[in-house]
Amino acid sequence: MIIMKFGGTSVGSAERIAATADIILSAKHPVVVVLSAMSGATNSLLALSEGKGSQDSIIERHTATAESLGLPKNICSKIHAIMDAASTPSEIVACGELLSTTIMHSYLCSKGADAAWVPALDFMSVGTDGEPDTKTIKRSAKTAIEKTGQHDIYITQGFICRDSSGAVSTLSRGGSDYTATLLGEALGAESVQIWTDVDGVYTADPRRVQTARRIPKMSYAQANTAARRGAKILHPDCISVAMAYYAYFAAIAGFKRGYRHESFVVIEISYNSASCFRME
User: In this prediction, what percent of the chain has a pLDDT beyond 70?
Assistant: First the structure.
């Protein structure tokens, strides 16, 4: 089993959802796919949770995406139901991942994939200190997967969780990376892949600094330092989990040329060092 995590840009439009689905379908199975909310959706939901913004615009964006993908009309009803069920601020913010995974799961099934939708709220939890309850996650994640039966693809949500009282909560921003590594450890996955739109770790944000240089090799310790000093490609906490449990960890740029994945870059991080190579 492998874990594949895709961020908001990878599911940010109908075209990108279709491209990401192609990557998932071509992956080694079984695979657990962790998705973020559509790009920009979390900000809209945060505003809505504070009494600002419009629920209608959020629903319209997701239903329009579903329609562009040619999904059944009942998906629009599910989108409305997810939004209508949210009442607390945390429940509202959590809708982003629930919506993106609902759309992706439906699209994969429309392509004939053997895919199951697994709610992260059934297994991802934090303790009274706000830190992931790894023992509970390990036990509950296995149960949640087994409950759905045997499938090629399992779709679940990053970022969202339950707190020690059982209420819906969230990890810190960018927490989908953290979810992926925690889930990989809990399920004993052979590898965790973080798919992104930046081809590696740079000395600065290459979208803002033209002179930024890609770092071709780095150790776990260096990756951990880079993440904690602001490197956006990896969530700081996910590196510490990877350091403890993985000899293989990858960050992959999936949309190097347009929206399809004709070319991508893999950062393979081992216990001792990392290498970066281009896949054509």
Answer: 73
Is the previous residue joined to 206 through a cis bond, with omega within 30 degrees of 0?
no
Three-state SS letters, the chain: CEEEEECHHHHCCHHHHHHHHHHHHHCCCCEEEEECCCCCHHHHHHHHHCCCCCHHHHHHHHHHHHHHCCCCCHHHHHHHHHHHHCCCHHHHHHHHHHHHHHHHHHHHHHCCCCEEECCHHHCCEECCCCCECHHHHHHHHHHHHHHHCCCCEEEEECCEEECCCCCEEECCCCCHHHHHHHHHHHHCCCEEEEEECCCCCECCCCCCCCCCCECCCCCHHHHHHHHHCCCCCCCHHHHHHHHHHCCCEEEEECCCECCECCCEEEEEECCCCEEEEEEC
Task: Output the pTM of the full model.
Answer: 0.81
Q: Reply yes or no on whether the pLDDT at 245 is more than 60.
A: no
Q: Is the pLDDT of residue 69 over 80?
A: yes
Query: Above 60 in pLDDT, residue 272?
Result: no
* Assigned token pair, 85: 């069920």
